[in-house]
Protein 1
Amino acid sequence: MTQVRRQNFFNTTWGVIKFTAFWLVILLQMPLLLLMPRGKMSVAYMRVFMGILVFFAGIKIRVHGKLSDMRPLMVVCNHISVFELATFPVAFGGSFFGKKDIESWPLVGWVAKKFGVIFVDRRPSHAMDALKCVQDEMNRVDYPMFLFPEGTTTNGAYVKNFKSTLFNFIEDSNVPVQPVVMHYRHRNGAPISDEDMAQHYAYFDNAKQDFGPKCRRERSAFSQVFHIMVLGGFMVEITVLPPPPLAGMDRKEIAATLHKIVSDKYMELKDKRSIK
């Protein structure tokens, strides 16, 4: 099995150069973002902006299948690290529903809102407000909106159960929901072991994992980006599945159905031998 690139002086130095260059290019984008009105144009520009991160991080993207042309469209997917926030806009366009706490992150929160990210508070006490936020946005936009129903990232060994709260509006609407399965590989297409995934590629909180390897050193989002640059990147393989029939289901049935589809396919794909 392919080994993770060993970290040494040369790799670290090259990582520092790429990380510095990345932030310099990002800073050059700030005046444009300040002048650009929030809306369809800024959402479309996210593909360019995130493409810069994908380039410097050395991430290859491989997509199997095609998103539905129906609008509005909610896309649900498993969630392993911060890089989904870059690879999905590059691969598909569109924007996200995100966790409320990210809104307060320095610079990141402001840029995310500029790119059409809608922050929702998923605490049970704010369920009604979150639901209305999702409904309003789905009725307004003409591009796909991505949701990570696990509510957090994982170590990549499994897919957590999907939270059902935000699927309330699906019960009484005709909004199609399309499942997407995403997994990581080494850049040459070889599978990544669960241990290497947890230690190097996934970005998660040990305390929120149900099982599987724990990370010996938890990193911040920024240090995770730097770490991947030192390692030389990886491949994100995205498999688009057809929207399942959800009519007549309540929110918990919808969540369970979508979770089974995504989880079963993820477990099937992640351990397959190298792809060509």
Protein 2
Amino acid sequence: MSDVARHAGVALGTVSNTLNSPEKVSEPTRRRVLAAIAELGFVRNDAARSLAAGNSTTVGLVLADLGNSFFVDIARGAEQVMRRHGMNVLIANTDVDRDREVGNLELFERTRVAGILFAPLDTPLAQSQVLPIRSTPTVFVNFTATGGSYSSVAVDERHGGSLAASHLLESGRRRLLFVGGPLMLSAVRERYEGAVAAAARVSDAQLELVETRGVNIRHGRQAAQAILERGAGRYDGIVAASDLLAIGLIQTLADRRGFTVPHDLAITGYDNNHFASENATPITTVSQPGEEMGRTAADLLLEKIARPDAPSRAVVLEPHLIPRRSTLGDLWPQE
């Protein structure tokens, strides 16, 4: 700014007013300052301004996996709210890496963002009450903070699991299988518990478990091999803990005699990933309200920024079922 002032032949305060309060500067002077800015290639350092003013117009968003469109929806919802309040959102993708998760949190702390939205991995770090953040207001997304130490917004996963199993049961399926894991992941475990509860409400229903090592397509293919080995007819409905698992299952089972989907095996997924409806066999899924979660989390963070001592709040949202061809077959309407 000093260089700009010298080049334009004005006081430093005039440059500041041109940038921040242009109504205080005459039109000829403003043009001269803007010409000097353009000539010198000056770019205002908003980070330095925020430090000097003791505030920031930027929040950080740490996401577990941008490869999952659910987290993209969270980012979109958060950005909508922050933009209305004149705030910017910087996104850091953890890519399911614990070290990167910690590094992203520490980076945002060092850069003095106004607050952090944290969609964590299900690790001891997320389950603890102490994050590597000393003073930055933080809100959890898609995870309930232990002991209410942070405000949070999450989805009722047990209800989601119950919705999926109930849908299969209502269509007459009785020999159910839950595919997902590891059960140490709280979301997967709660979805399984919801499915178990739904099956328990139907006297002639049964539910078995194939625990996987993850929730990606390859884990679904591996689970499908185990199902093939157990033989046709053992199951007539599968609750998969994710859409990716469901895709892996369908890719392996769909063309096998005795395992056709959905005639022999009706399959539900979870998350409503954008490609779930575009699969060769569109997948019935449990949809989480990602954008609503992002908006709610952003509102909670703005509360914390405005009133750091305000008590933490936990918000729980409801998922809903989207029926498609993987359970409805030809009854699914063409889009």
Protein 3
Amino acid sequence: MIRQQLLSDYRLKWNRIQEAMRQIGADGCLIASGVNLFYVSGTMYSGYCYLPAEGKPYFFVKRPNGLTGENVLYIRKPEQLPDLFRERAIPLPERLLLEADELTYSEYSRLLAAFQPKEALNATALLRTVRRVKTAWEIEQTRICARRHEAVYREIPACYRPGMTDLEFQFEIEHKMRLHGSMGLFRAFGPNMDIFMGSILAGENAETPSPFDFALGGAGMDASCPLGANGTLLKEGMAVMVDMAGNYTPYMTDMTRVFSVGKLSDEAYRAHQVSIRIHQAIAETARPGTACADLYQQALQIATEEGLAENFMGTKQQAKFVGHGVGLQINELPVLTPRSKESLEENMVFALEPKFVLPGIGAVGIENSYLVTSDGVEKLTLSPEEIINLI
């Protein structure tokens, strides 16, 4: 089930989870959500992984058939689990971690009834905290993703044709993405975060608020998915912000670049340079131990000094964060927000996206993914950062 050459990587992940479990006095963690199952096994399957506070994990599989390996057992329903535990002398947990923020009420209730622990704890928060710090293999996968992400962005100008809408432009970019190996699926944590392959915001659509918890909104194609491109005709003097997913390996990168249809206003180019300046300032400041809230305040202070606070991270609705962790999901921990209690740690990967919305022109600013190193940060997404004219 787990590739042997990656076994040491998975043992490291198991050990990290077990250490976090012992710190809160949990006896075991039962994992059921797809992303977390992949995190601990390298396989997407229907079923469960049980990780005791001490010892090796057990993998209880419903589907697909044919998975083999140490401690892989097939089941039909969760009610079988306690009997299987007893047959294999696995102690039933008294303090059991379950993914309370991700399981359905029905699944959660069935698992509680089956195990009847003295106390149920929330595995979702624990696993998201552990996943913040990447292993060497995860970082390698992130680098591979970044190179493919950059390759697609180099081809974006060739996707443009006069008279296009933002949707037609996005379709051409999506085609390039699939040719470069994009998985298509854009994984995000939390409800109301549905999006397909990324977002393009052209002109006034960049001001449209969205109920989704992304940096900027956009009206989208339909009221059922109010985010991103909406059929805006690409016209002279319009900024086109491209924030398409870097999902070329399981570990994603996040990158935004801005294109223009002809020349933009001087204010648009100035605001774009302020975004680049914020990146440079934070790259000099950020290192292990730096408070995430301080990085947000640093970005806001620069935007304020430049007279752009009212345009920072939106106009009609302003996002209250300037960056976020990236990994198996696009919105992992940590979050760079003024309320954050987190600090950077070595081998975290985060995206920084200071953006400005200018009425009548569109959105400007860049987003890059960074790796936290022992003495600073390393920029992972290396595409040109200046506004590129499409005509």
Protein 4
Amino acid sequence: MLIGEYQHNIDSKGRVIVPSKLREDLGDRFVVTRGLDSCLFIYPLDRWEAIVEKLKTLPLTDGDVRRFARFFTSGAAQCECDTQGRILIPSVLRQYAGLSKNIVTIGVVDRVEIWDSQKWQDYNEGAFDGDALAGKMASLGI
């Protein structure tokens, strides 16, 4: 299970450390791609393959399916950590997520998210309505 929040820096070459606790669950190879909410998603390879297989079953004639598939897969990159536990985030993904020097890496059950530190702070200050969220989770059976 991928959980936790970690503060790190991104270096001038676009490399970031993947925290060791998250690397254990991600495995040796994984995929980084555009995520929702202006962050990046990292998926273990088996989970990524399951998502791609699901995308293949969706109707190509549906414009939203095509747009989402393009958005989600066009910037995707398969990664492996170097000996220091870092991955290189492609520039197109760094730009998309607006990554500056300070980043936050979080585990979200079956994926990892990478956020620009300021965006993560803004998201947490503005997007969280505990009562509304609790009601929504209750309606989903959680």
